[in-house]
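Bug #77: duplicate submission created two jobs. Keeping one. Sequence:
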Amino acid sequence: MSAEPTKLLLKRVFGKETEMRTLLGTMNEEIEKMKKAVNIDYAPVTLDKSDKKVGLSFL
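Kept job's structure:
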């Protein structure tokens, strides 16, 4: 199935434009938000644990 029919189906089902996302991409976005909130909402160790789960290294 090509992307265009999929987008059309999602638009009809949900009634709005939608985008295809991957789990890894979503996790990376959330980790970027967490990095901005280290020592405010999150302890550095929390971010380190998330880094290891996703398999990225940025600390």
